[in-house]
Amino acid sequence: MTTNIMTTSNNEHAYKRIRIFDTTLRDGEQSPGASLEPSQKIILARQLAKLGVDIIEPGFAISSPGEFAAIQQVSRELHNVEIVGFARAVKADIDAAVRATQDAARRRLHLFISSSDIHLDFQLRKSREQVLQIAREMVAYGKQFVDEIEFSPMDASRAGREFVIEMVEGVIAEGATIINLPDTLGYAMPEEYGEMFRVVRQQARGGDKVSYSAHCHNDLGLAVANSLAAIRAGATQIEVTVNGVGERAGNCSLEELVMAIETRKEAIGAVTGIVTSEIYETSRMVSRAMNFPIAYNKPVVGRNAFQHESGIHQDGLLKNRNTYEIMDPEAMGIPRSMIVLGKHSGRHAIKHRLSEYGIMMDSSQLEDVYNRFIEKADVLKLVPDSVLIGLASETTETQHDPYTLLDLQVMAGSADSIRTATITIRERDSQEVKSYRGTGAGPLEAVIHGLQEAIPVDAEFEDLELHSLSTGEDARGEAIVSIVHHNERYRGTSIHKDIILAAAQAFVASCNQLLMRAK
């Protein structure tokens, strides 16, 4: 097999094309609590294809009838990506993988068996000779059905180097076309992992005639670094998961690896085919489907990845984004919200945020708002836009919000009945106060339905996030509501001890944001 090379028109460098092998739907789903329904797998597979991954491993066909059916539908539907049938080095697994992927336009088998002594002694209870024989026989068996066979000596980074080479030689002789050297336990250091690729490629007979892949886990936080080391050592395929989901601490994160390559392509000498504008949406879809929240400080897609509270940073960003950002969040589909307001924020950031809502102030008014803001920030930590606008209204004695939530009443309970919310709203221009009712299966749904009746905004309710900010009887919750209007996303936030009220205030804030910015 040959390595794909592409050049860019901007310079004379030749960049190695790295193929992205996504295993979110197989290895990622093995993360405890991340189980997906077959219908969810199909939806996510479509998004992964839209994202531009080269290869999708949609599951483990022999594990269940639902898994088999999902792999089968993905194979039939997605013709622009290669589909992988994953199997242990066992005939029944291979048969199931072959049947599930038989309708794929392009497919491969991915076979694995352990290679480290600790796995052989305590898990397989087999000798090296027995494992080598099984590996060769099963690759030869699989070769009857497919041309492309990827082979993984599991736990290769903790195995004897000579045995890994012997196993690789054996499976290449039987027809393996792609060799994956996995760091199954996330144990390797980058220099060790890269060296393993160099040694195997150079010393294994036939090693120069196959492609190489890296599959890294993140137990020591080195999955991305090890994957980059593998690229430098000759790997042309990297196996990843969206949001880095996977067993234990997870797998190499797709978005982190891709953006490391994209941002430092000159240093790494490589490119991928990923459509970066789809990164954020893919991340959100996987997070929702698996019910796995994304850590605030998660690189690339975390909430804080492109947010800045420090006054010094905020001032620099307002002058030139490149002062404190090395990537463009909007190019990845991430909504532009680079400045969050807290006690470290300065006057420039507050003035800028208010100006986004059309609120202009003289220096004395701004100073008054700033002093009020600092008092709030000590209590709230992060000050939502709705609170800032409220402070501006107090200073200028002018109501800036188009709509104000005056009262909310809603009942919760254990009875299986429809919940009803009563909402009282004041409209700024007319100063009319009106009450509205909403119903729903739960109190939040009833509140949102009532607010949609109260505020005439042509927008889609997209998302509600709820976060606990403290513990104990006086715990506060943060609600973040996103709405979409003409493909633009508006986010409102609120913090309150009553989480239902916080959600209602956040929805009103998002609608006010839309109306004020439109005006």
UniProtKB/TrEMBL annotation:
Residues 18-280 form the Pyruvate carboxyltransferase domain. One of its GO terms (molecular function) is 2-isopropylmalate synthase activity. The keyword Amino-acid biosynthesis applies. It comes from the Bacteria. It is an enzyme of class 2 (transferase). The keyword Iron does not apply. Its EC number is 2.3.3.13. Keywords: Acyltransferase, Amino-acid biosynthesis, Branched-chain amino acid biosynthesis, Leucine biosynthesis, Manganese, Metal-binding, Transferase. Pathway: Amino-acid biosynthesis; L-leucine biosynthesis; L-leucine from 3-methyl-2-oxobutanoate: step 1/4. Belongs to the alpha-IPM synthase/homocitrate synthase family. LeuA type 1 subfamily. This is 2-isopropylmalate synthase. The gene is leuA_2.
